[in-house]
Design a protein that fits this description.
single chain; mainly alpha; globular
């Protein structure tokens, strides 16, 4: 576990060196400040819109960050040739994958905490209110979703280039967030092969939308019941473990040569 933690720390150093987190933070702060000075949709000073859009941007930015950082870890090591000294040390491929995932997830989790605090501070300054327990619960569910996304990007990158892995991760995440919630409604008017295809998509794709509790925060619906919330976190943990297992199965016998990965 210590070796995996060392790999995770290297991921942190790389992320800080590339300054992507700072760019996203500045962009989010700029967009929120622009909202403060604008009359949103001509409806006057409505803090709820700032909270809604701020949380949406926090989700988008952290999703993008998790996919970008997660999908490039292994391909970049292979491209630079640093994969050879890494695997020459007493470091197993399972530890390498676990360390990479832990570094990506912990980094984007800290980024999400900063984003949530920034949004909360702006909304409070704007005169708005929200339930802190609901916000904390929403952030915890967000972290579970980021764990899944980080593992998903890493799993794709074991057998793809960083660009292809990122693209596939975006497709899966987009379908999970935008399409899967509508499938039960679509099934009511479908039949035959179409219904079978929709059912397959619904049960095979990860349900990342379960981790998005923004509406409960924005509309003041309170927290999710403890039992349901525990099931959401358990689903996230199980899905993350499954994706990391898939990543390990795809990487444990992968061969490398100096001209590229095989």
């Amino acid at each position: 576990m210590r070796r995996a933690a060392t790999i995770a720390w290297v991921v942190w150093l790389e992320l800080l060196r590339r300054k992507e987190l700072y760019v996203l933070l500045i962009l989010l702060a700029t967009l929120l400040c622009a909202l403060l000075s604008a009359d949103v949709f001509g409806l006057g000073t409505t803090a709820r819109y700032v909270l809604d859009l701020g949380l949406l941007l926090a989700w988008i930015f952290t999703l993008v960050l998790a996919v970008i950082v997660g999908s490039r870890q292994l391909p970049d090591e292979e491209k630079r040739g640093t994969i050879y000294p890494l695997l020459a040390k007493p470091l197993t491929r399972a530890e390498l994958l676990l360390g990479k995932w832990l570094g990506v997830w912990s980094a984007v989790s800290c980024a999400s905490a900063v984003f949530y605090l920034l949004v909360a501070g702006v909304v409070r300054a704007y005169g708005g209110s929200f339930g802190w327990p609901a916000l904390a619960q929403g952030w915890a569910a967000h972290l579970a979703g980021l764990a899944v996304l980080s593992a998903l990007a890493l799993a794709f990158s074991t057998r793809m280039t960083s660009g292809a892995a990122a693209c596939m991760s975006y497709v899966v995440a987009g379908a999970s967030l935008c399409v899967l919630p509508r499938i039960p409604e679509m099934l009511s008017g479908a039949s035959g092969p179409q219904a079978a295809l929709l059912s397959a998509l619904y049960y095979l794709f990860p349900h990342i939308e379960l981790f998005d509790l923004r509406l409960r925060i924005v509309h003041g619906w309170g927290t999710v019941p403890r039992g349901v919330f525990a099931l959401i976190l358990a689903y996230g943990a199980a899905l993350t473990a499954l994706l990391l297992l898939v990543a390990w199965l795809g990487y444990r016998r992968k061969r490398f040569d100096r001209g590229g990965a095989a």
